[in-house]
Design a protein that fits this description.
With about 575 residues, this protein is α/β, with parallel strands linked by helices. It has four domains: about 1-155, Alpha-D-Glucose-1,6-Bisphosphate, subunit A, domain 3 (Alpha-D-Glucose-1,6-Bisphosphate, Chain A, domain 3), CATH 3.40.120; about 180-285, Alpha-D-Glucose-1,6-Bisphosphate, Chain A, domain 3 (3-Layer(aba) Sandwich), CATH 3.40.120.10; about 295-440, Alpha-D-Glucose-1,6-Bisphosphate, Chain A, domain 3, CATH 3.40.120.10; about 445-530, TATA-Binding Protein (2-Layer Sandwich). About 40% of the residues lie in helices and about 20% in strands. It has 20 helices and 21 strands. The strands form six sheets. A five-stranded mixed sheet has the order 2-4-3-5-6, with helices on both faces. Strands 8-7-9-10-11 form a five-stranded mixed sheet, sandwiched between helices. Strands 13-12-14-15 form a four-stranded mixed sheet, with helices on both faces. The longest helix is centred in the middle third of the chain and has 19 residues, at about 300-315. The protein starts with a helix and ends with a strand. The structure holds 2-acetamido-2-deoxy-1-O-phosphono-alpha-D-glucopyranose and magnesium ion. Magnesium ion binds near residues 64, 65, 276, 278 and 280. Its cofactor is Mg(2+).
Amino acid sequence: MDLGAITKYSALHAKPNGLILQYGTAGFRTKAEHLDHVMFRMGLLAVLRSKQTKSTIGVMVTASHNPEEDNGVKLVDPLGEMLAPSWEEHATYLANAEEQDMQRVLIDISEKEAVNLQQDAFVVIGRDTRPSSEKLSQSVIDGVTVLGGQFHDYGLLTTPQLHYMVYCRNTGGRYGKATIEGYYQKLSKAFVELTKQASCSGDEYRSLKVDCANGIGALKLREMEHYFSQGLSVQLFNDGSKGKLNHLCGADFVKSHQKPPQGMEIKSNERCCSFDGDADRIVYYYHDADGHFHLIDGDKIATLISSFLKELLVEIGESLNIGVVQTAYANGSSTRYLEEVMKVPVYCTKTGVKHLHHKAQEFDIGVYFEANGHGTALFSTAVEMKIKQSAEQLEDKKRKAAKMLENIIDLFNQAAGDAISDMLVIEAILALKGLTVQQWDALYTDLPNRQLKVQVADRRVISTTNAERQAVTPPGLQEAINDLVKKYKLSRAFVRPSGTEDVVRVYAEADSQESADHLAHEVSLAVFQLAGGIGERPQPGYKAAETTHNISNAFGPGTANEHTVP
Ligand SMILES: CC(=O)N[C@H]1[C@@H](OP(=O)(O)O)O[C@H](CO)[C@@H](O)[C@@H]1O
Ligand SMILES: [Mg+2]
């Protein structure tokens, strides 16, 4: 480690005085202008992680669904997974080190993790379309090179594409080719094979409107569409040619406002979907004949996927264990439907994809989705081998089902939730089953629900248990929630501190929208009173809180994971 060079280059990426950031659920996220030093330092950290794991490590520059002025960075571990928790701590430690402590902190981390500094290091880098992303990714590269690491800069990529590249590179090409062409070809081949089998292939099944949140998804989908055009024609909206990233559009907007994005004209019963800003989330929706908007969120996506996989397994005659993983935000109707109608075991984890991903790995087939549309399906190596064999050996009907499953496995991005891959999976299933978007939606009816945010002085006063469904502190809060919930039918409510914004999130569901809104409001008041609310008391009506969802910077002392110390 050339400590002299590190000190010299670090000074060129100096940390603003007093800025403290935390590696949160989705890495570091804050205003782009505060991130230069973090990028440089994450370049350094990626080299250390690469040396330690003797593998390629990924660095993605994005702030997903946050406003355009924000940016962020996260590291991708060898199998395309999120960074290991112990290294998240190192990331926070390194990002907040004062200039004069940089050398000591780097040595500290290397010693703690027994990093062999002689080992070669390789880092791959991707970025989204934000105006700040190119320069920030250059700072990552500076960090990588000053520690002697090799790198490949993929330039513009969706977040899940970068996860895919890392996974491919560390599995000797078995998962796929680590190029953008390789990604397009792997997914499109599987998709075209699948849709060839569909007996219903009228126009209705072939066209889809896609809101790309004015982000990277538009560029990549446009590059990719001719690879799969035999099976599906996509019409792109909010493709970045005019509008602002994530502004009044995208999956996060549609899910939290429960209304369509701007910039997309929807005729009744047309199938539409929205990606988020870095294309790792997707939600579907349509207008019915009466002009009512219907949202099909991550829960219903998980239901469609797991029921299809289960049917295929029955046809093949394999009894593999299949599980669905959700968070507390999953609509109660979805959990009930999965458990009682589909007889699939359902598990609840804490919010954040890494928790769901980890749990899903315990099954032969694990399907996980957050209600907001981030998710995928994971298949154990044993299952993949078994299905490959079945696709060659079984007699006709079973072989066809096994072949289908083989292609579906290829179509999923098993490294991370991926809007493009999930979209193609969903489109293939709808075509194969001959399901319209309305029929899919009608699998079950969502319980009316409401999400709110409450500002408190320090959201860490709220701690939770039971996969965040119950508050442990502050004293009296859970009892208050229990009493409020009793007042409504089919009701449920919980609160938790956000991991990406300086707010407390409140969730409530009940038998009617009015009850869900009332319950959410009453719970907000309890949080405000018992957990140190600041600013204006929560007002009835959900507007004030939820419509600010996309402008996370409106809250607290900073944004996302940022705090400024005086
Ligand atoms: C209720 C909700 O949607 N929470 C989101 C949000 O986390 P919070 O910890 O709730 O701020 O951002 C995460 C990262 O994108 C995502 O994984 C999660 O689902
Ligand atoms: Mg995202």
